[in-house]
Design a protein that fits this description.
heterodimer; A: 381 residues; alpha/beta; abc type-2 transporter like fold; 4-stranded mixed β-sheet; elongated; B: 377 residues; 2 domains
Chain lengths: 381, 377
């Protein structure tokens, strides 16, 4: 019990770092949850964020603005900040109708509408094509004496004719939002477990402490077992806290059969991570080096194994390196679980293989740790 | 000069600071590069795959799909019309396609299972097709002269849109902000050198500072030399990072290297000044001060786009004073304005603001430390 109590006292002293990580993660989780999708699938046109400046302000241009509402989300941004908004993708298109646009149409001329596109050309394409269509129809009608007062509503009647959309019901639960959360969890588990467990274990590492412990009534073997148990409890504690947060944020996705598999995957992932933290603390003696390792491993692994950037976007060479890192298989499993519509043994086979690979990494790290520890012990003796 | 050299040697012995200001940014830069170095924030026109039921197809619609082109001549659609409606329904259920189109009498139906940009392009194209079809039907009821005139006008290839030319980089990639924010973060990590500077000058901090305090040297002189030594070291680390990003990782920067270096220099001054000022006013052990610097530097860098590019835009839009008081934001913004705008006015404004901020911080530190006396240490 003494060793158990001591472990948690040391954890308490280092708990600030864990708290900071949790706070950051909660904020990121809350940002994500804003985009939580509906349960039932229903088709809707992808809307483009635009700034629409109407310097003409006639019925025709007002009609265009009203019709574009089907395809666009209007943003109100100061004129001097349009360029910056386009750069940061706050808007995807800037539209400026010049003064005299309608008058020009009446005279059979065209005064071009100014546009400035951002980096999302395909999204802007739907809007530009719609403006082109509306303007051309207005031109054709006005130029042929069809410029009645009801032209705008006539155009609207025509443009409201649409294709019928028939939607297919979704087979399994769509986990895309929670998969992003679970993938991101890999970063936090790596950072937390390596930094916190390593720093705690470091307290037991100095030679004089080891010698003093050897003299105590608890055998070395028993003490190591208690420490191992405490580390396991801590790892599970971190995992549980993150899972509870996940359930609160995405209850409809996590509390399903596939969601259970995501949780099981996260549980298996903590084994290689804990084994890695043991290896780090066995290899290095300085708290600074261990903290640096925690930061470098967590960030490095997350960048190259698809935690921050989806695996399909990563370069093939990078993915080849990533295959030597356990988090690659953790992320691959999350993505795979999301793809599976029917949970049967055949479909789950690749998931189970990835479970085994992760456990294999844990075993490998433990073997290296035991080897290094034995060598160190011989030197110390 | 001797004091400067000794101080430099001392700073180099601080392995933790050397790691965070020299090695860590290089590693993070490498990770950024591995993650999104080859990605572009620009999405270009892609050909959209559209499946049409072979047994329920409309030849005019098929022709319309096949002939549709983007402005650059690229085909909008790749049409697949070999499978029957029944077969298409089966592959749709197997999630091998996202949707298909068929015509039944006068009605065109788009059977679909996902939302996306490709699906939206198909849907808006189908709508346009139906609208034109209806218009042609309406024209049939008009007076022959009016009909002929309208048909002739309809066939005209009028262009109603024109791209506005502005003095900005047309081929920008907003992922560069991550790298610029990384440089800004490194500048802010200069605050660690600022903490050790104050720690070695405030007599109640360490034995070394106590010894320095009783030495017959003016505080201002020591403060200046210590500051310059820290700046020399930190600036060289920053230059190394910029050259590494620009020439090894091939990150896009403005062509004006001199202005890039100037921005980095002012950023380093600001980082160290922030560290000296905060360390001067906070009464706490050095380790705690360093912890505070980590939080302040990372928070400041996060607001400048280190974790998510858009955060910089949101933070400065919804809280405009940040444009003037966040040193990391000012460093990132100066790199951004050099890269994106051809006009230098924004860059100059950023640098002037950052310089004024640094001068105020250094002056504040001097006021705090000047003539400090201790009853007991």
């Amino acid at each position: 019990m003494t060793v158990f109590r001591l472990y948690w006292r040391i954890f308490w002293k280092n708990s600030v770092i864990a708290l900071i990580y949790f706070m950051v993660f909660i904020v990121l989780g809350l940002i994500q949850v804003q985009n939580y999708p509906e349960d039932e699938f229903s088709f809707s046109i992808v809307k483009t964020k635009i700034v629409f400046v109407d310097r003409d302000n006639t019925e025709i241009t007002q009609g265009l603005k009203s019709y574009l509402e089907k395809y666009a989300i209007y943003k109100d941004i100061e004129e001097g900040k349009i360029e910056e908004a386009l750069f940061y993708n706050e808007i995807e298109l800037y539209v400026e109708i010049p003064e005299g646009f309608t008058e020009a149409l009446k005279e059979g001329e065209i005064l071009p509408i100014g546009i400035k596109t951002g980096s999302q050309a395909p999204r802007a394409h739907i809007i530009t094509r719609t403006i082109q269509k509306y303007s051309h129809l207005a031109y054709v009608h006005i130029n042929n004496g069809q410029d009645s007062e009801a032209l705008v509503s006539k155009l609207r009647d025509l443009l409201d004719r649409e294709a019928v959309v028939s939607e297919v019901g979704r087979a399994g639960a769509d986990l895309s939002e929670s998969v992003y959360y679970f993938n991101y969890m890999a970063y936090l588990l790596l950072a937390l477990i390596i930094s916190v467990i390593s720093v705690i274990m470091l307290a037991f590492k100095p030679l004089e402490i080891k010698r003093r412990n050897l003299l105590s009534s608890i055998s070395n073997r028993k003490m190591n077992l208690i420490l191992l148990f405490c580390n396991f409890l801590l790892g599970i504690g971190f995992l549980l806290a993150l899972l509870v947060l996940g359930i609160i944020l995405y209850p409809r996705q996590v509390l399903t059969g596939s969601g259970f598999l995501l949780m099981l995957n996260a549980f298996i992932f903590i084994f290689p991570v804990m084994a890695l933290s043991y290896l780090v603390v066995t290899l290095f003696d300085s708290k600074n080096v261990i903290t640096a390792c925690g930061v470098v491993f967590s960030l490095g692994f997350s960048f190259i194994t698809g935690v921050f950037i989806p695996q399909f976007l990563l370069d093939e060479k990078i993915l080849l390196i990533a295959k030597f890192i356990p988090s690659y298989y953790y992320v691959a499993n999350n993505n795979k679980i999301n793809e599976i519509a029917n949970l049967n043994f055949q479909n789950l086979r690749p998931v189970l293989t990835n479970f085994l690979i992760q456990l294999g990494f844990a075993l490998l790290f433990i073997l290296i740790t035991v080897y290094v520890a034995k060598k160190r012990e011989t030197q110390e003796n | 000069m001797r004091l400067f050299a000794i101080r430099l040697k001392m700073l180099l012995k601080s392995r933790a600071n050397v790691f965070w200001t020299f090695i860590y940014p290089l590693l993070l830069g490498l990770f950024f590069y591995m993650g999104f170095g080859n990605l572009s924030s620009r999405s270009s026109f892609a050909t959209v795959h559209v499946s049409v039921a072979s047994d329920m197809a409309d030849p005019v619609l098929l022709e319309a799909f096949t002939s549709a082109e983007y402005d650059d001549g690229k085909k909008v659609f790749q049409v697949h019309a070999k499978l029957s409606r029944e077969e298409l329904e089966a592959v749709l259920q197997e999630e091998r396609i996202t949707g298909y189109v068929y015509r039944e009498g006068g009605e065109i139906t788009y059977r679909i299972r996902t939302n996306g940009i490709g699906e939206s392009i198909i849907k808006s194209f189908l709508d346009e097709f139906i609208q034109m079809e209806h218009l042609f039907q309406e024209l049939g009821q008009l007076d022959p002269d009016v009909r002929a005139g309208m048909l002739a006008d309809l066939m005209k290839d009028n262009r109603y849109l024109q791209e506005i030319n502005t003095a900005t980089n047309p081929d920008y990639n907003n992922f560069v902000i991550y790298f610029y924010a990384l440089i800004a973060m490194t500048c802010m990590f200069g605050s660690f050198w600022g903490v050790s500077l104050v720690g070695d000058l405030q007599a109640d901090n360490s034995y070394r500072a106590l010894r320095t305090a009783i030495a017959p040297e003016s505080k201002l002189k020591l403060l200046t030399i210590y500051f310059l030594a820290a700046l020399a070291l930190h600036f060289s680390g920053n230059l190394l990072l910029i050259f590494y990003l620009k020439y090894i990782l091939d990150v896009e920067f403005s062509q004006n290297l001199l202005l890039i270096i100037l921005a980095s220099f002012v950023g380093c001054v600001a980082g160290i000044a922030m560290g000296t000022f905060l360390a001067g006013i906070i009464r706490a052990p050095e380790r705690k001060k360093e912890g505070i610097m980590v939080v302040v530097s990372l928070f400041s860098s996060a607001l400048s786009g280190l974790m998510m590019v858009k955060v910089k835009y949101w933070a400065e839009t919804y809280f405009p004073p940040l444009r003037f008081i966040n040193p990391a934001g000012l460093v990132t913004d100066s790199f951004f304005s050099l890269y994106y705008f051809s006009d230098l006015s924004r860059y100059i404004r950023d640098l002037l603001t950052l310089s004024v901020l640094s001068i105020l911080l250094v002056f504040g530190t001097y006021l705090k430390m000047r003539g400090e006396k201790y009853d007991s240490v």
